[in-house]
Write a structure and sequence with these properties.
This protein is about 40% helix and about 15% strand. By secondary structure, the chain is an alpha/beta fold. The chain has a seven-stranded mixed sheet with strand order 1-2-3-4-5-6-7. Strand 1, helix 2 and strand 2 form a beta-alpha-beta unit. The chain is globular, with a radius of gyration of 18 Å. The protein binds adenosine monophosphate and manganese (II) ion (MN) (3 copies). The site of adenosine monophosphate has 10 residues, from helix 7 and helix 8.
Length: about 300
Amino acid sequence: MSQGFNERLRAYPNLVNADLHCHSVWSDGVLTPQALVARAQAGGVELFALTDHDEVSGVAIAKDAAQALNLPFLAGVEVSVTWAGETVHIVGLGVDPQHEGLVEGLRRTRSGRDQRALDMSEQLAKVGILGAYEGAIKFAGNPSLLSRTHFARFLVESGVCRDVPDVFSRYLVQGKPGFVEQRWATLAQALQWIHDAGGLAVMAHPARYRISDLARDQLIEEFKQLGGEGIEVVCGSHTPYQYEQFARSALHYGLLASRGSDFHAPAESHIDLGALPPLPPKLRPVWSSEKLIGRVS
Ligand code: AMP
Ligand code: MN
Ligand code: MN
Ligand code: MN
């Protein structure tokens, strides 16, 4: 990366339009890594990271595409974790996508997805929705990448639900048809893989977890104790009130702040790449850390 850009990251990080969370066809996004990179640049993104769920296969493609457009890029991943019975997501930034421990850990994390999808399909059949597995796989391509999002798209396509949010209010969540409990990685494993692969760990969308405020504080505390470095403050699923709430958490726990749209699809994401507001003042952006600056390509 150019010396000038690195200097901006150090001196004026808050003026850099960083979008460090999004999904491609290598997980539950609908755009290719190349299309995402082009869209990010068109949307004004100046530092971009691809963070597919439990998968780094799209990273090399995105990196090449970003290089061709002179868009500063970070390799990333969003690891699915089970913590106290709840699914929690940890974003790894600046990881080496070829690191064996990371690749193997992610492979194991993904390995339950196909069976879970079959179980989800069986449950949906019991409430009269037939062919959900086949329907979802049409959207996913690869069985090991099958996610609830692909089922959601099938339920919209087949007219059962109005849109994806409608699906997640009536199906596929705890207590509703199509929900299947899944054991993902542990928090300690996710952090270990990310750190071993040379990356920084960021707690994704902390407001999204359906846990008590006390449990949320415990989660952040444990994440910090395990060496977690950052927390998403401004992201696609936070309200402006929550930007302020997690800005206080970042300061309180001494965590770096991150920003990411969590973009999945033009028709589904209400926040486009690069369109989020800047971080609240006084926070230290994760992209101003020397470790991450050294990983920008
Ligand atoms: P999975 O990893 O298969 O459990 O799927 C999780 C994915 O479902 C997330 O990454 C989101 O893309 C999507 N998702 C979960 N909850 C919602 C929601 N309430 N609205 C829209 N998408 C959601
Ligand atoms: Mn997703
Ligand atoms: Mn997530
Ligand atoms: Mn995400």
